[in-house]
Structure formats: structure tokens, C-alpha cells
Amino acid sequence: MAAASTEPPRLKQLLERDPYLAPFRTDFQRRYSLFYNRLKNIEESEGGLDKFTKSYKTFGVNQLADGGIYCKEWAPGAEAVFLAGDFNGWNPSSHPYKKLEYGKWELFIPPEDGHSPVPHGSKLKVVIRAQNGALLYRISPWARYVVRDEDKVNYDWVHWNPPQSYIHKNPSPKRLKSLRIYESHVGIASPEGKVASYKNFTYNVLPRIKDLGYNCVQLMAIMEHAYYASFGYQVTSFFAASSRYGTPDDLKEMIDVAHSMGITVLLDVVHSHASKNSEDGLNQFDGTDSCFFHSGYRGNHQLWDSRLFDYANWEVLRFLLSNLRMWIEDYRFDGFRFDGVTSMLYHHHGIGTGFSGDYNEYFGLHVDEDALCYLMLANHMINTLHPECITIAEDVSGMPALCRPVAEGGGGFDYRLAMAIPDKWIQIIKELKDEDWNMGNIVHTLTNRRCEEKYIAYAESHDQALVGDKTLAFRLMDAEMYTNMSVLMPLTPVIDRGIQLHKMIRLITHALGGESYLNFMGNEFGHPEWLDFPRIGNNESYHYARRQFNLTEDDLLRYKFLNAFDRDMNKLEERYGWLASPQAYVSEKHESNKVIAFERAGLIFIFNFHPYQSYVDYRVGIETPGKYKILLDSDAGEYGGHQRLDHNTEYFSEEYPHNYRPNSIMVRKKQVTKVINWHIQLFMVYIPSRVALVLHTMDIPK
After folding, report:
1. Which residues form the Glycosyl hydrolase family 13 catalytic domain (predicted)?
2. Using an 8 Å Cβ cutoff, are 130 and 124 in contact?
3. Integer Cα distance of 34 and 8 in angstroms
4. What pLDDT, in 10s, does the model give residues 409-446?
5. CB-count exposure of residue 494 (10 Å: 0-12, 13-18, 19+)
């Protein structure tokens, strides 16, 4: 590598783009220096980043070509290390590891008559002799498969080495310009009250995702977690795919089938903390309070009751970077959504801290630059070795440059979640009457993002579906969802309002809120009730740990309308690509009329949020002159609307400037007509109340 540099090669471009960052130049230099020097040390001491991040092939228990077994662990606090299991009658001392430098231990077990001495499916434990002489039976941090018998509390480590592993048949999809993400949880992906399987997701859910127009699935709770109700965020085995849904090969098949459908698959990766479990987790693996984590107070998350990684530790970097590499190369994941990034970035972990946007909040001693350096290394590794992969940061703080390249001094992520958007919709619905909705505030929230950083917009995610919170549909319609969602029942004002606003909120978020869009499974059709996993507090019930996809298949229920609108909204984006287009030009955000109008990707989006006022004489400014037709109408009958618009109508622009646009179209209920070539041509538009319209010029074929 070239001589060390304290300044990112393209920092100048970053500071020119955002001059407010100029006072923090030395912070960017220090951060990049830390990244650069750690990368340089890896290259020089470990034979390169490529070799360093392939450590999952040597650590843990690995099968050799000759049938032998090679084992390696990092346990710096151990006095001795042994391997015990079914293969040696659980003898705790017959297979001792050899002590190496820097707290590493290794063991080679020769083949027996050309066969592995540790059979596939047999149980294992690493036995640690602690400094106090106690023998601790542990699961290897690198274990690939762990299972729990129904009559047991803890998980068991099972050696996974089948005679024939699943072979991927389909290449990964090319990197997408427009991401339409379906956030999913395999275990709840069934109407039945049980833990659903990888097989169920493969053959029943993936076709549904494809039909809905989503091109990316983001999988939660895949990394093994002993506590099901943790939603997968209390990880116990980082290299093991959760066995409660099936085998590793079942997951590989699921991803392969998704790829055959052109669906990108992302993993919700949890590197921000780890479960406190010691019997079947990382905690106290070598008998000490530290090992993978900070010791003492700093190593514990006070709100999550979990352990916090020491990102400055060489072996922690090996472990976490290799973990990412394994999920990409063994399972063929196409990238990651990094959970809990805010907690990683700051020593205060975001606890009791608000973020106003003042840049001083993002620089200084309160920033955990070791954690930030790890994220830079992770993104650098992924971008270098697998440039087709995507990374997403879940950061509520708004850390500047988090989604700019590492070469600019940024964090290297491709996208960040626009976490203010769902909070805004909740606040509006919860606190304001419809007449008091502030159009300017809605537009500001949807468009307020850092320059040239890509955002994933969403109206709601899994957070809003959890027990204790409410989905948009449930906030809008509440108890009437139990009684009035049948088409055989009269359309009540509550259900009518809920259905119309649900569509409008999702479309304006999709079209205006970012460069990607995310939906949590079931929310596309207004899934009723909340999400609650089996636990002592609900008598271990699975009643709310499921997704009732069957509701959309019942022609007598109104859920089908929301489902159809979500599908057609995605299909329209697929056709015109507004997510990959420059940010929208908002020409109108009229407070008293409750109208928002904007242009993006050559389309005109018009939203009338007024609860009762329909406009019969209204002008909307546009950039491109021409003849326009309706492409999407939330008031259409197939979407549960009132069918107040004629979709055969053609609308003509006028060379009449309006709202700083050179042209405009008029909005009138009684449309003015003119005869051209014996055909009736209309250039007026009628916008009913609580309706969203998307128009496109017919002069530009698409």
C-alpha cells in the first residue's frame, strides 16, 4: 500500500458539497487515519484483507479435504481448551487444543479410515478451563448450526457437514437502481399460529413478494437467537442460520429461488451488540468479562441488557468482518442492513440523547471512532471484494457523510433509513385533526435529507407493528377493522377514511421520501392487529406472531383493495423509476387547500389531503408541456375508491406559468373541451377529496 496519509483522498469534494463540514476537517482526517492504519496493519500482518476476512474457513471446526478436522479458537482468558462431544463420548480432556500466540488455540484431529472423526449431525462443545480452574462448556463463536430440543432451555452446537450441500443454481441479480424492499421475518410468514419455515417462505411468500412488485427482500432474525421474542436482535450464534425455520441448506435454497425471480436478498445483520447468554452465546466465552466485549460498565448496553463489542480489538475485527464475508459467500446474501448503527457510533449509544442536526453532535469525544472505523472497514471490504452488494445503515442520528464513500471520509454505506418519516406519520395521525395537517411540514419531512446521500423511505416498518405500538392501518381504523372490513357491510366513515389515507400516505412516501422504499410484510394490505411473539406475558401464544396473508385472498374483504394499490404502485415505479431519479420538484404545498403537487421522473403527482373538499377549478404548475393521462388513481374502484374520475380523459397543458413552472394544467370538475381531428380532447382535471393522482404525458412513450 502507499505511504500513510492522514486525509481521505476525496475529502475536498465532500467539503465542497457541504461547506458546513469544513470546521471538522481534522475529525475526518483522524477518522480516516484510524481506518487507513488498521487496514494497513491487516494487509501487512495477516496477508491481506482477503485472507483476514476468510477466517471463517479456519476458525471454529472445519472439515479438511483428507477427512480430518481442524479446529481453532480465540480464548485469551483460558488456561486450557478442549473439544468434547458425541465423537469422544464427551470426554472433557481427550482432545486438547495447542496454545498459540495472541490467545489463539488450535487442534487437528486426523481422519479415521479416510472419514471424518466428527460425524455430520453430532453434538460438540468447546471446553474452557477458566483461570479459576472451572470447566466451562461453550458453543464455538464460529458454530455454523445450533439447535434446541423442545425439552431444553439452551441451544446445542451440531456439527454441520452434510455429504452433499445445497448448490446455488442462479446468479445474484445485478445491482438495482431502484430498491423496493419487502422487510420480512421467516418465522411469522404464515397465517398459522406456529413458527413458519424457510420452505414455506420459498414456495408461498416469495411468489407473493414478486407479484407485489418488490425487487428486494430484507430478512430479519436469520442470525441465530435463543430468545424468539427478541425479533432476532439478541444474537447468540453469529455464524449460524436460525434452525427454528429449517436447515442451512433450506435457507440457501430460499435465497437461490429468490435470485431466480430476480429478487435481491439482504440480511438484517446485528453487529451492534450481542446476547448476554453465556451457555449458548458469546458472553464470557473464555471465562472472562471481556474477550469479544469491553469489560465492565462499557461492555453493557443499559437499555438492551446486552454486551457491547470492543471494535478496537484485532480479533473482534476478524470475527465481525469474517461474519459478513461468510453470509455473502456461503449463503449468497446480496448485502446487509446494519442494525443499531446509532448505538455503535456514540459512546452514549443514543440513550437519553436527542439529535437536533447541529454538526457538533456528530464530532467530538462522544463519538466512538473505533466503531465508526469498523463500519468503514466493513463497507470497504464489501465494496472491494463484492462491489455488487448493498449496505444500509439504521441510524436515527443523521451522522453526516455516513453514506458517502470511505475515500471521501464517509462511512461507506449505500443507503440510510429515513427514520423520521414513520415518526412524522404517527405524530400527525395521533395528534392532529385532518383539517390541521400541515402540508409544508409533511413535504419537509419527506425531502429533508443529506446532500447526495441515498435514503430508504418508509411509512412504517416492523417497529410500528410491534405490540405496544400501532400500524398505520390500525391507527386509522382501529376497532372497526374487526367489524367493518367486509364489502357486505356499509362503508363507514372510519373505514373509508382509513383506506383512502393509507393509500395516499404510502404513495407520497414512496414517491417523495427517498431513493428506495421499504414495507414490512403485511402492512401493504393494512394487516390488522399487532405483532407479539410467544412469551410468558401472553401465555406463549402464537396468535399475534403471524401474518394473515389469507385476508387479501378473500374477495369479500376490503384488504384486497390496499393490496392491489400497493402492487400497482410498485409496478408503476418499476416502469418509470422515480426512486432512481433526482429528487422531486415540489411545486405546491397549499395549507388551506391541503394539496401537494410535485414532479419526478417525468410524472406529475397530485395529492388532495382535504377531508371533504374536492376542487373543481384548480391549476397545477408543470415543467413539460403536452397531453397527459392518468396512470394511477387512488380513487379507482379496484383500490376501494369512489370512482370519481374518468381514466379515458386526456389533459392538455397550457403555456401559463404557475408556481415557478413554465406550464400548467387546470383542475376543474366541469371540463372544458375542444375538438381536434373529430376527437374530444380535454385539458381540465378534477381532483376529489382524499385522492392521489399520478399523470404522465402521452407525448413521451414509456
Report:
1. 192-508
2. no
3. 11
4. 999 999 999 999 999 999 999 999 999 999 999 999 99
5. middle
- How many Cβ atoms are within 10 Å of 16's Cβ, its own excluded? 10
Distance CA 586, CA 599 (A): 7
Positions in the chain short of pLDDT 50: 1-4, 668-683
As a whole number of Å, the CA-based R_g of the chain is 28
H or E segment and range at residue 370 = helix 369-385
* pLDDT at residue 5 in the model: 56
Amino acid sitting at position 616: V
pLDDT of 638 reads 98
User: Could you tell me the sign of the dihedral formed by the alpha carbons of 509, 511, 517, 521, in that order?
Assistant: positive
Judge whether 182 and 547 are in contact, CB under 8 Å.
no
pLDDT at res. 669: 43
**Grid coordinates given for 210:** 414478486
Residue 339 annotated in active site: yes
Cα separation, 372 vs 366, whole angstroms:
12
Q: Which of 333, 336, 332 is nearest to 375 (CA)?
A: 336
Contact (CB, 8 A) for 639 and 691: no
Active site residue 573: no
Helix (H) or strand (E) holding 589: strand 585-590
Q: What is the pLDDT of residue 304?
A: 96
**Which residues partner with 32 through β-bridges?**
none
Among all chains, which residue has been given the C-alpha cell 495447542?
Answer: 98
Q: In the 8-state DSSP scheme, what is residue 504?
A: H
Looking at residue 672, its pLDDT comes to 39
Rounded to an integer, what distance in angstroms lies between the CA atom of residue 437 and that of residue 595? 11
Please report, as a single letter, which amino acid is at residue 71.
Answer: C
**Burial (CB count within 10 angstroms: exposed 0-12, middle 13-18, buried 19+), residue 57:** middle
Q: Could you tell me whether strands 663-668 and 585-590 are parallel, antiparallel, or unpaired per DSSP bridges?
A: unpaired
The dihedral sign for the CA sequence 126, 127, 130, 134: positive
- Residue 412 in contact with residue 391, Cβ under 8 Å? yes
How far apart CA 438 and CA 443 sit, in angstroms, is: 9
The sign one gets for the Cα dihedral 33, 38, 44, 45 is positive
Strands (E), 539-594: 585-590
Task: Point out the catalytic residue in the list 183, 394, 515, 635.
Answer: 394
Query: Which residue ranges form the domains of the chain, and what is each CATH number?
Result: 10-52 (no CATH), 55-159 (2.60.40.10), 585-697 (2.60.40.1180)
Grid cell digits, residue 363:
464530532
pLDDT at 650: 83
Q: What residues pair up with 126 in beta bridges, in sequence order?
A: 83, 138
| Residue in this structure with the C-alpha cell 454505506, named with its chain if needed | 413
pLDDT of residue 700: 57
pLDDT of residue 677: 35
Distance CA 685, CA 470 (A): 36
pLDDT at 276: 97
Which phi and psi (to 5°) does residue 336 adopt? -140, 150
Cell of 549: 396473508
Cβ atoms of residues 292 and 313 within 8 Å: yes
Taking the C-alpha atoms of residue 66 and residue 89, their distance in angstroms, rounded to an integer, is 23
Amino acid sitting at position 447: T
Half-sphere exposure of 447 (CA within 13 A, CB side): 16
**Which residues does 174 contact at the CB level (< 8 Å), separation at least 6?**
388
Count the residues in the chain.
702
Instruction: Give the 3-state secondary structure of residue 537.
Output: helix
Amino acid, res. 274: A
Would you state the pLDDT for residue 702? 52
Q: Which of 224, 330, 334, 339 is catalytic?
A: 339
Three-state secondary-structure class, residue 211:
helix
- Report how far residue 20's alpha carbon sits from residue 658's, in angstroms, rounded to the nearest whole number: 34
